[in-house]
């Protein structure tokens, strides 16, 4: 990601050009804090005009900036190095896209001269951000949880965004879960930084993104969870059709031959298991569905599946595990001679394991 350099707030018609979200670089503040600007300056014509002045800035939600200024040599600047808003930010999450400030110079005669507008995306977080700071983490959380002022409400609002299966990065580009990918090994995006830039990722990337978005809001405690089959090499995420007339793989444990999406050859008689359009993933109605493991998030005793927007699954660890399995798993896979083969999930029998 590019380094964001000063100036952060810019006139939208300035020579510096545009960056993501407008002409100013993204900025973040904690709810209830004061917006402070440094090195504020205006070009003035004619250049030989000199006077004392008062600078005013008017932003959203009664954000007002004011202070004495000097005009000389074609430049107007506040007397003091910093100018802060006279009103603190709301005690709640906000996403200002942009936070636009209309500027006015008040001359000694009382004449008010329009001095342009500065714009920047401003993301207000619930509490001090934790961990990495990428613009998309701020944008996702502050957009989703706008107006919330309690941690539980922020978590619910952020989760609702993931549950919609339409999560967008800071540039409002949708991110996918195995979008257009059938073989999991064909997509090597395992973490949130890769996901927000490459826009498509594995379950580990979506797990990481959900945790990072919450941490950016100052919410700690979200834990990564790995789920694996207890006895099998892999599992099939719903939905699959098992045809009783083709249970002829020749292996008692796995009666149905299975086409491996990562193999260029198909087993004989492999039509016994058909991959149907199944549980939709992030911006993908039918993502890859044969895995050795899957990644979830645990927070406050609830289990979330960000890749599918599924959950939260509640109860004890075993109860949540069972609920996830019943909602997610169609069957299990293993080797049968030279081929992959499968069996159906047994209803009511726990066959996967959460690691925490």
Helicity range: 10-25%
Number of helices: 5
Mean pLDDT: 91
Q: What structural class should be given to the helix and strand makeup? A: alpha+beta
Order of helices and strands: EEEEEEEEEHHEHEHEEEEEEEEEHEEE
| Assembly state of the chains shown | single chain
Q: Separation of termini?
A: 33 Å
Strand content: 25-35%
Approximate shape: elongated
Question: How can the largest sheet be summarized?
Answer: 7 strands, mixed
β-strand number: 23
Poorly predicted sequence stretches spanning 5 or more consecutive residues: 16-21
Strand line-up of the largest beta sheet: 1-9-8-4-5-6-3
Radius of gyration: 27 Å
Core attributes:
356 residues, five-stranded antiparallel β-sheet, seven-stranded mixed β-sheet, single chain, 5 helices, 23 strands, alpha+beta
Question: In a nutshell, what does this entry contain?
Answer:
It is built from five helices and 23 strands.
Description:
With 356 residues, the protein is α+β, with helices and mostly antiparallel strands. It has five helices and 23 strands. The chain has helices spanning 135-144, 151-163, 192-198, 203-216, 317-328; strands spanning 27-30, 36-38, 42-43, 51-58, 64-72, 75-78, 82-84, 94-106, 112-125, 176-177, 200-201, 223-229, 234-237, 240-242, 256-257, 273-275, 290-291, 294-299, 302-305, 310-313, 329-336, 339-344, 352-354. The two termini are 33 Å apart.
